[in-house]
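Input sequence (75 aa), recorded before submission:
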Amino acid sequence: MAQLDIPPPEAAVTATLEGGPTDISAAHRQLTVTTAARKVKIPHLGGYEHFERVDGSAGDGAVVFRWTMRTRIAE
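Predicted structure, token format:
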């Protein structure tokens, strides 16, 4: 019988998004990402808000991503 090489699933952590537009709700500022994630991009008002991981963590143990820029969605 053949054995398949299936990679293990990546571990996930809670991410907290800091900075950026003030109208991003608190609920949308908490999300789950893989432990290897260095950047996060979320859709917001016809564009994307970009966040990059910072060293350290939030007081609740979440990984922190800080806002870096906004891009518009090409149509």
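Checked by second reader. The chain has a mean pLDDT of 87.
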